[in-house]
Amino acid sequence: MSEKTRIRRLPERGVEDREKINEILDEGLVCHAAYVIEDRPVVIPTLYVRSGDRLLLHGSATSGLVKAVRDGSPLSVGVTHIDGLVVARSGFHSSANYRSVVVHGQGRLLSGEEKEKALDVIVDSLIPGRVLDIRRPTASEIKQTAVIELSLDEVSAKVRSGGPDDDPADLMSDAWAGVVPFNVVAGEAEPSADLRHGIPTPDYLQPYSRQP
Amino acid sequence: MSEKTRIRRLPERGVEDREKINEILDEGLVCHAAYVIEDRPVVIPTLYVRSGDRLLLHGSATSGLVKAVRDGSPLSVGVTHIDGLVVARSGFHSSANYRSVVVHGQGRLLSGEEKEKALDVIVDSLIPGRVLDIRRPTASEIKQTAVIELSLDEVSAKVRSGGPDDDPADLMSDAWAGVVPFNVVAGEAEPSADLRHGIPTPDYLQPYSRQP
User: Fold this and answer.
1) pLDDT, tens digit, 9 for 90 and up, residues A84-115
2) Whether the predicted model's global pTM rises above the 0.95 cut
3) Which phi-psi region, left, alpha or beta, contains residue A95 (left: φ > 0; alpha: ψ -120 to 50)?
4) Chain A window 28-67: which residues touch B at a Cβ cutoff of 8 Å?
5) Which of the residues A83, A180, A188, A211 would you substitute to probe the B interface, choosing the one with the greatest number of B C-beta atoms within 10 Å?
6) Domain boundaries, given as residue ranges, for chain A
């Protein structure tokens, strides 16, 4: 299947592109972060949020990713949304519709006040309003958690949308052609079995959405 | 947010784990493949399918990923499904429900008959039955496409499911706790604007599903 992608590369591609990139990043919840250890790549999924012109990656303080950042490994971080299956009249032109962003750079481990602030930003970016409803993190919790800051300096986006782009010679084919759209749907919030009686589902979860 | 993961590592963990891993892989459409170039990691999203005990990664013959494999870079490939947002009574225990598989290894570029066969496998794994409905790929199309085989020897899976796992001391909190489930929903197949009159939507697309 062909890679019918419109590639947009930053830096210095103007506000429109940066807004599109931010939109893609803000819709995600989990990124795939790649690092290098002993000349080998390792990719892992991890929670992240975008905050201004940086990503904040969330992880366990003892994870391989965090160790690699501490040891100076550069990072490559990918976020992808699959929007549909493009069913063309040939295998070659069949494809997927998607929006993806890849960020490269040197991660920085946050500490102290900066880290505590970032943890609030992560919670409040994932669930706006949530920080006010929960207790503060303890010193031990903060110690067990790592936050990696990755600036959005070196970032590129690829987007494919729309229907199949078939060869003119294939248009008389008997094969069906089109797109199967995919959507991520957030369902109704399911209360925990041990939730105290009389606590209503908060407004920020009904409905929950990663789209603006 | 905490990493509440049950880690299952292969090889030799028995059929049950391998079946679970296959299930996770079969539900996906796009993986994040990481390679190393000049000591730096690069991650890119790309279409893949599982076929037996290997992944088949699909790409353009001129892509950086394909060049890296040709140059001997090892690969790390991640596939992740986000099943929900775990809303705990603390930031620390808040998390995501997910199923993810990571595969490590040396990719092998397929060629000749093996490659042509693999292209059929890719099409028919993405859309079972489709190969019979479309024309054969041309020699030029096959040349422009690369198929990377990656064996499932070195593979691990992480799964988090269920509700929040709060500290006992937090259970009396006034904060709501539970899970917001996420589902990927395939919509109705949308015919191409240039689809010839009278070609019905094929059965294999109504409905389309990546789940067995």
Assistant:
1) 999 999 999 999 999 999 999 999 999 999 99
2) no
3) beta
4) 29-30, 32-36, 39-45, 47, 58-60, 63
5) A180
6) 6-160
